[in-house]
Every structure is written in C-alpha cells, then in structure tokens.
Amino acid sequence: MSDLRLPVIVLGACALLAACAPDLAVQDVTVQWDATSKQALATVANVGNLEAGEFLVYFNGDEFPESQNRRPQVSKTVQSLAAGASATLQADFAPLAHSDNNFLGRVYQVRVIADPKDVVSESNEGNNEDSAPTVSTPVTLYDKNGVAVPETPMPIVQPGLPVLFVHGHQLNGLFSQGPGYERNWQDPLDYGPLLKLPSFEIALDLPENAALGIEPYYTHFADQDLSIIEDASAIGEAIRRILLRHGDPTATQVKVVVIGFSKGTLSTRWYLKHMMPASQPVSEFVALAPPNHGLQAGASLTGSSLAFRQINNGYDDQCVPFNEAESNDFIERLNGHPIEDTQANAVQDPRFVGEAPRSRTTGAATDQGVLYVAIYADDNRDAVGGGTNSGDCQGRVFASNLAPNAVNIEVSEIAGFTPLLVHANTVHTPEVICLALYTAVHHQAPPPGGLSCSTVAVSGRDVPVIPTP
Question: How far is 392 from 405, CA to CA, in rounded Å?
C-alpha cells in the first residue's frame, strides 16, 4: 500500500482572523491656534493587519456659523500605510484666512478625518475621525472630595461609575451665593420648615445609596456669559480628564454619564453632536429642565450674555433678531431642523434625529450610542416649557427632545408657584434625583409606568433611595 500524503495548508495569522483588512485610526490631534499660528498636527495609524493603499486625510476647520464661501479645509494625501505603521501630518490653516471665513475667527475646532472618500476597505470605520478645540477654555473639574482634577491626573484605585454634573447658568456677580455647581448639585434648597429640598450630593452621600458605586465629578464655569460652544469644549476637556483618572483614556471600557441642568444641557448637546470623539466616551445624557428649543428671555438677561442670546436662538423675546452671527439661529442649527416645527405641536419623528445624534434605544448596550433622557415639570410649568406648544413666535420654550430614541419624562412633584421657581426646584426634587440616578446606574431609562423611590429623612428633607442595579 502506497504512502498517501495529503497537502498541508498553512494558514497565516491574518487568514485566521475574521477581520483581515487595514484599519485607519486618527490619533493625537493637537492644535496651535493663536494670533501668529494656526496649525494642527495629527497621527494616522494603520492598526489593522493589511496595508492600506493611497487615501486622503482632511483637516476641517469646524466653524460656527459656517462660512458660505472658503470653508477652511486642508487636504493631505498618504501614498500608502503598512500594517502597524503610522504617519504624522501637519496642516497649516493660516494661508486660508479670508474675509469670507471671518479670517478663521469662527473656527472652534479642527476635525481630522482619515479616508473621507472611503476608498480603503477597513475592518473598523468607527475610528477614522478625531478632533481638538482651537479655543482653550478654562475648566475647573472637582471630584467628590472637592479636589480639583489636574490636566494629567494619576489613575485612582477602584474607581466607581463616573458621573459628570454640568451646572446651569448663574448670573455673573452672584458667586457670593456660591458657584453654580454647588448651588445646583451640592447644597440643599430650603424655603422654611414646610419645604426643605435635598441635593444630588446629599443623595449620593446617603449610606443606603453607597451600593450605587457612583464617582461624581462637577464642572465649574467661572464666566457664565461665554459662548455655549466654549462651554462644550470645556465639557470635552473634563471628560478627557475623567477618563485619564479612571485609567481608560480611549474609553474602551469606561463610559461617562453626564447629568446636566438648564443651559448645561445645551452645552452638553453641542459637545455630543460636534465634539465627541469616535470612541463615544459618554453612555447616558440626562437633561434636567432642558431649554431644548430655546427661551424667550428679556433684555435684562440677553443684553450682556452671549450664552443667553444663543439660548434665545438669536432673537429677543419679541422675535426681533440680534443680528449677531454667534447667536443667530443657534438653537435651530443645534437641533438640525426649523425651530418653528414645535408651533404645530411637534412629536418625536425621524426628521428630528439631529436633536439626539449618535443615540441608542434604552436597553441597548452602552457602546451602541448615547441614551438621551430629558426630565422636566409637567403641564409646561417650567420656564423652559414642557411637551406642548408654548405659543412663542418661533416655537421656543419647548423642553421635549423630539428625536425618535430620546426619552422624555414629565414630573408632577416639582414644586413652585412661578416658572422660574419650578425651574430652580427641579434639580432638588427627590423624584427627579431618583429618576436621573436610576438612569445612570442602570444605563437605561426608568420604566414607562414610572418609578417609585423610597425616601429617608435627613435634616427634615426627604432624600431618595435609588433602586440598585
């Protein structure tokens, strides 16, 4: 009997893998943007296992408002990139300065996109983009012990679930009453012995809530009248520091929950829509009393505050335009559809997906998008409106998020005899605290039938006990 030898097929390591392809990733975007230099630097790495052929890399100067002509963009060509190799590219925007783009004065970040034409077939198309702000907005970030988190923090031992609290607007000059983050999130709110309201910090310090495992962080915006875009940039920096402190700078395992109040919800939405990196470091965004479709604030507030003029969509309370590029149609541009849509009692619809970009449905995995939850008073009692037409000349004062995946929750227990009191009381209402923290620890919205939290009396205040996961 002859010796039968079968051919031996040796499979390479690449052939054994499901994803045998190049994978372009944008890394380490840095920007130098001042009076004498307008440059960006970025590294494009091929983290896949096959060589990538020729492709483009765009350096886009993102503006608000966008220039009609001469939008700033620098294009680079990479001839090829071997598996495991990287290329560092530099873009000089200074020659692009022109009156048509306000001499680059409205560029708020540089966004770098590898292979924008999709000529390279990749194993992962989700890491082809990253960005860096052109404006270095001062940001102070405090941890649960009141200690400022530095720019390059050391990782902490056994960190909990990171939750970033973004405070609302506080009129400049009122810091004698305490910074906004203290007033919104830490201090109780008392109206005498008959109405004493707790705070998120008091709830987190409750022994019955220790099992939640939340690691709170608090932003502090010293200048309240800056552009909402600058605050959004500061939120991005705060999230970067949190991820470093939790030992996961690329958000591979760690996701941050953001709970925002009032104006802070718009700053967060701008970050999520325009500045959040492809790694999607935010898992849930809980918006408390959000002015999702703007306000109709009067001249006493809008006169000195760019932020308030932006929240007003660039028009005063009588719908007379401010004729200011930085605020004109700001809410409309943020939402991605005509602001007047709410005049017809708008409901959630796929047309309004721009109000919650990169969103996921409740119950989906945290890496499948951001869960958007809006919580506000029922019956349009808040100054930001509610879920029905406000009658405003532009359709402003409407709190609901109209994106299909967004969850809107109206709360009847929020006290207050005026819209402004209802607004201030929202972040101190036990039911609101319960709903927000439940969303954070469960990574899903509260059940449609409502949520019942027990309470514990602390110094005469009812403090909610959050059901554990």
Answer: 26
Q: Is the pLDDT of residue 421 over 80?
A: yes
E strand or H helix at 217? strand 214-220
Domains of the chain: 24-133 (2.60.40.10), 140-465 (3.40.50.1820)
Say yes or no to pLDDT of 367 above 80.
Answer: yes
Neighbours of 153 (CB within 10 A): 17
DSSP3 helix / strand / coil % (the chain, rounded to 5): 25, 25, 50
| Separation of CA 357 from chain center | 10
Q: What is the 3-state secondary structure (H, E, C) of 122-191?
A: CCCCCCCEEEEECCCCCCEEECCCCCECCCCCCCCCCCCEEEEEECCCCCCCCHHHCCHHHHHHHCCEEC
Please give the Cα distance from 119 to 117 (Å, whole number): 6
The string of pLDDT tens digits covering residues 284-319 is: 999 999 999 999 988 888 888 899 999 999 999 999
Q: Which H, E and C letters describe 51-81, residue by residue? A: CECCEEEEEEEEECCCCCCCCCEEEEEECCE
Query: What does residue 272 show for φ and ψ, rounded to 5 degrees?
Result: -65, -35
In the chain, % of residues over pLDDT 70 = 94
The type of residue at 173 is G
H or E stretch at 244 = helix 228-245
Report which of 86, 87, 36, 33 is spatially closest to residue 61, judged by C-alpha positions. 33
Cα 132 from Cα 340, distance rounded (Å): 33
Quick one: tokens of 336?
Answer: 């991605």
Quote the distance between the C-alpha of residue 391 and its chain's center. Answer: 29
Distance between CA atoms of 404 and 363, rounded to whole angstroms?
A: 15
- In the three-class reduction of DSSP (H, G, I as helix; E, B as strand; rest coil), residue 462 is classed as strand
Write phi, then psi, for 398 (nearest 5 degrees): -150, 110
Structure tokens of 53?
A: 């052929």
CA–CA separation, 151 and 149 (whole Å): 7
Q: How many CB atoms lie within 10 A of CB 98?
A: 13
Q: Torsions phi, psi of 81, nearest 5?
A: -145, 115
